[in-house]
Amino acid sequence: MAEKSGGNLRHGFATRAIHEGWDPADGEGALVPPVHMTSTFAFSSVEDGMAIFAREKPGYRYARSGSPTIALLEGRIASLEGAEAAVAFASGMGAITAFTWAVCQAGERVLIDQTLYGSTFAFFNEGLAKFGVEVVHVEMSDPANVAAAMTPNTRLVYFETPANPNMRLIDIAAVAEIVHKAAPDCLVAVDNTYCTPYLQRPLDLGADAALHSVTKYLGGHGDLMAGAVAGSQELMDKVRFNGLSKFTGAVLSGLNAHLVMRGLKTLELRMERHCSSALHLARIIEAHPAVERIYYPGLESSPYHALAKRQMRAFGGMIAFELKGGFDAGVRFMDAVELISLAVSLGDAETLVQHPASMTHRTYSPEQRAKYGIADGLVRLSIGLETPEDLVADVTQALDAAAR
Ligand code: 3LM
Description:
Layout: H1 13-19, H2 46-53, H3 68-81, E1 85-89, H4 92-103, E2 109-113, H5 118-128, E3 134-138, H6 143-149, E4 154-160, H7 172-182, E5 187-191, H8 196-199, E6 209-213, E7 227-231, H9 233-248, H10 254-264, H11 267-287, E8 291-295, H12 305-311, E9 318-323, H13 326-336, E10 341-342, E11 352-354, H14 366-371, E12 379-382, H15 388-403
Parallel strand pairs: 2-3, 2-4, 4-5, 5-6, 10-11
Antiparallel strand pairs: 1-7, 6-7, 8-9, 9-12, 11-12
Helix pairs in contact: 1-3, 3-10, 4-5, 4-9, 6-7, 11-15, 13-15
Bound molecules: ligand 3LM.
Ligand 3LM is lined by residues 91-93, 117, 119-120, 160, 164, 191, 193, 213, 215, 225, 227, 344-346, 360.
């Protein structure tokens, strides 16, 4: 995957994740930037405060609309995503809701893919539709369906790729081209949580915004909640000063921004390990006689393999599969794991397993799950950073147990 844009391109991804935006000389030599734990900022005069509030002069006023530690993190995420700017949030849902409310209004139309993280799906269908925005479900893995659903008042096209939990892929470049041709003001937003900008850069492929649950791989250690959106400066100003500051208030704390930056320093290394372990395990799972079907774009048998090779650097750390015997066999597998933890969330050092139909995607009705490919027997694995042989042993004994 070629990197076309973003931040200081003299430097590579890992260097930017570690250094972007910070010179120790600006902080009395501190190698690690200080954490600003302050809610408000003192002005030198009324005139100064007025100019900062009017955004005629750069400066901080109140931490809900920005602070130095958050700004440093935002600069790093923007650089990694190849964006002009980014806005950080207290959670992924904080980012998704603030972004959407900042860009859409009643009477407009939003296209969403048919598989999204459960709370995102609920937000669009229950939270947004309630305020007079028309929300239309489209099967976006065929871009022709997006073309057919576009109307002049379509304001936003929103999807995840790979989609949580069933690993469908969507061709970002093809969808962005179709959308921008049909309605130049329509925004294409991609939830890039599953990939991180190390694996996939939606803006380089023509999208207008990349969104994250930073709680996951970017934080990387399962010890915080955070979110982010990256895009043009103009769009991010709208997201910050309307979506975040006025609509949701879902602002990240300085301490958590510091922890995310600590996580980002090892993002490249961690993603390499997540991806290599996941590919190794996917091959073992695919070959096991207890397995009915596996969803992992790194496998040659995946219908998304060619697209994954085109738009992702590697195939990610998430695997979904169904066992012969469906739901009951899936439950036997999840109850049989020993090293692996039975928990929602993903992107942590610990390998996690969960049951989408009853947990992360409970917001879908049984009919919607059936229609949108979230089988009752689907099991989701987030492959962690443990010794790969230990994961192989645990997965294999749990598959053997599920088959009995
Ligand atoms: C999960 N996902 O286990 P937060 N976008 C994507 C996500 O996967 C998530 C969010 C946004 C899970 C969380 S489910 C009870 C636990 C692709 C979260 C939302 O607000 O930071 O959780 O991000 O799949």
